[in-house]
Amino acid sequence: MIGEVGAFARRAYVAVRGSAVPPPLFSSTVLVALVATYLASPLLSASALCLRPADLVGHLQLYRLNTAPLVHANLLHLAVNAVAWLSLAPAMEEASGTGAFAHLTFSLLVPLVGLGAASAAYAVDAVVGTHTVGGCSVGLSGVLFGMLVIHLRRTGVTSVDVCGCFVMPARWYPLALAGLIQLAAPGRIALGAHLAGIAVGEATVAGAWGWITPTPSVVAAVEGGRPLSAATADANGRQQDVRSASPSNSYGSVTTTTSGGDDEEVGNGEKEVGGGGHPLVATTAGAGGRGGWPSRQPGEATDLPPPGRR
Known about the structure:
It is built from twelve helices and seven strands. It has helices at 2-17, 25-39, 46-49, 53-58, 64-67, 75-96, 98-128, 141-154, 173-184, 191-205, 216-222, 228-235, and strands at residues 137-138, 157-162, 166-169, 264-266, 270-273, 281-285, 308-309. β4 and β5 (270-273) form a beta hairpin. α8 packs parallel to α10 (191-205). The protein is globular. The two termini are 33 Å apart.
């Protein structure tokens, strides 16, 4: 039984990741932290760890910015966000380096998305007269939406094929996804966190945080002159194309294969990523070949929080 579960988990990982290569150091660490926090949830107080704007701002409980993304409402919530994390984080870490990606995630996305969600709650209360600031939201999906925006923009993806049903411009895909998730469970999704993630992602791509982003030389010094993701890959005997890049500029050109093993060239140097990548999304990179790994979305249509969930 345990062996069958393990085999299923390995197959699922390959389907989501696009290869059997273990995730890099930071991506693995965050995944372990998510699972560990969920396992310890019976011993923890969700109300003390969630993002409650009234406490965040009114009582300056800033720690909530870091704890809320780690907490999940139930096993399904955790599974959806974990799959989305594995769909995005390893490729982003391998492209930019562990230090740069860790800074992007926990120094920029996590606090800024939390502050954006809290600000949205206060704005809604001021306009509508509700008490949204007293709500409590948990989950990583706000950060995942920010990652999705950055990933799509920095890889030069121009269009997204959704479930093989229709193609839409990649620029509008995160916003459309947030809307669809909200329609699937109205009133039970922390829409403010999703929109804050999209806004922070767009601002990141535009270079708004360059003044607090370390230079490539600083990142290299912290990592000992070599991206930790590359060292992790070598330790596992894997060959990976890892290029260090500043977290404020575009990723280097990184080529991987999907689980189906096919990357097909499509006219004018464009690359279509399909087949064995993410089960819901195939993408097409713009001419110039800046794309190279499957771009995946934080499929959170099953995000059903009580009472507020990200």
